[in-house]
Amino acid sequence: MIVLDASAGVAIAAKRLSGRALRPALLATDEVQAPRLFQVEVANAVWKYVMAGDMSQDQALAIHAAATALVDTFINDAELVEPALREAIGLSHPIYDMLYLVLTHRTGAQLCTLDRRLAKIAGQLDLAVVELEAQGQPDRPRSAPS
Question: pTM of this prediction?
Fold first, then answer.
């Protein structure tokens, strides 16, 4: 099982180089889960690309739909908020990322993220993280997904 975060979901859906490196892990797993917040985070990420002039509204909508379709099961955020808040306070890290971390811990899944700080925290907590074969700078979408 994999817990997919928004950074990885956008990269995969936008067919970025980093997303292409992560896609095999999603194809090899039996289930992909994410907190419901994933949908809003993905929408916010593609909105930023539109505002920066890096993609059109149609591209943003297509990437949002494609990223959402990567997830088999969305978990109600309310189930994760209290333990995520405890982790956020204890680790001095934003709560929205801790929703993914708590879900990863609860399910025994691998965390699929491009957020290096979140991946580092997960590793320190002995949680499995999908590793990128080539860690480089995050790449921006250059064209509409096909």
Answer: 0.88
